[in-house]
Design a protein that fits this description.
The chain has seven helices and 14 strands. With 312 residues, it is of the alpha/beta class. The strands form three sheets. A six-stranded mixed beta sheet has the order 8-4-1-2-3-14, sandwiched between helices.
Length: 312
């Protein structure tokens, strides 16, 4: 299987989006196929399947192998830190945390984790302090999404969550901004969710996901500010001392300049609104067509772009 033959697909907030991305150098990416379509908030699985099939036909996507995004209110996404824990004991420790958080028996839980450790040191030594991110969810929800994708004629091989796909995208395009002296807080807004990811040191991750009860982030700006502030405080006190020197907003950012200004003035960090598809390191194939009514260069694409990066 070619490493470039995986597309990212994201199904959330009434939108299905898909993207196929290939690498064109160390920090250069190219979008070869992409698009999105809306579905009704109360759509049945059969209706969503029809939308997926229509989207695949519309975008002329050359592959049916996909990395899918998982969105559920019951997702457990937790930072962990275990001093002096033997690596062989990590699975048991994280399984217990997942059971406690989800209140499900171990046989009904799907879990994975990301260890924060130097890229040039892939092995964890006995007695080292283990820290990273636990991701856990009920197997029933994972299987439900995988079955939906299979019924649509797709072959899901990877499942990811919004925070880590966001990290993959930012690091692929702007990885040089993250090092032992500089951390960056990236916030991706969808219609109902916000993925907050702090990237630090050797591309380590501290993530948090929040859910809005309203579709308009413009009316929830104070709630968003409080959660970004909480994430920054917890990161500084519990996670790492590398200073966060920049706040990056992406995705469904309200166009009202007062929205960004209020976040900047309250949090006090240099704040940028970032459109990945307009990044200097991103190119878009001429075959990808946008219209006034349907712009592929859209905030709705951010998560599926990060999912598409799992192929390279």
């Amino acid at each position: 299987m070619s490493a470039e033959n995986i597309a990212g697909i994201n199904i959330a907030d009434g939108v299905v989006s898909t993207a196929r991305v290939v690498r064109r150098g160390r920090h250069k990416l190219a979008l070869t196929h992409a698009g999105w379509m809306e579905y009704a908030p109360d759509a049945s699985d059969e209706e969503i399947i029809r939308v997926i099939r229509s989207l695949w036909k519309k975008t002329k996507m050359p592959t049916r192998t996909v990395c899918s995004g998982l969105h559920t209110r019951s997702l457990c996404l937790k930072y962990f830190k275990y001093p002096d824990l033997a690596p062989r004991e990590l699975t048991s420790a994280l399984s217990l945390e997942a059971e406690e958080s989800l209140q499900l028996p171990p046989g009904e839980i799907a879990l994975d984790w990301h260890l924060n450790r130097p890229k040039n040191d892939p092995y964890t030594q006995l007695g080292e302090q283990l820290h990273g991110i636990l991701v856990a969810v009920g197997k029933k929800e994972v299987n439900g999404q995988l079955n939906l994708l299979k019924k649509a004629g797709l072959f899901p091989v990877i499942t990811d969550v919004g925070c880590t796909s966001l990290c993959n995208l930012f690091l692929a395009l702007r990885g040089e901004k993250v090092n032992t002296d500089n951390a960056v807080c990236v916030v991706n807004l969808s219609r109902f969710n916000a993925d907050i990811s702090i990237l630090y040191n050797d591309h380590y991750i501290y993530p948090r996901t929040i859910i809005s009860r309203s579709s308009e982030w413009s009316s929830k700006v104070q709630y968003l500010i409080e959660n970004i502030s909480d994430a920054l405080l917890y990161y500084h006190v519990k996670v790492d001392k590398t200073p966060v020197n920049q706040l990056v907003l992406t995705g469904y950012v309200p166009k009202d300049p007062e929205f960004v200004a209020q976040i900047h003035d309250t949090i006090g960090l240099p704040t940028e609104v970032w459109s990945p598809l307009k990044d200097k390191n991103f190119t878009v194939a001429r075959t990808i067509k946008s219209t006034k009514e349907h712009d592929v260069i859209s905030p709705l694409m951010t998560t599926s772009l990060g999912l598409g990066l799992r192929n390279i």
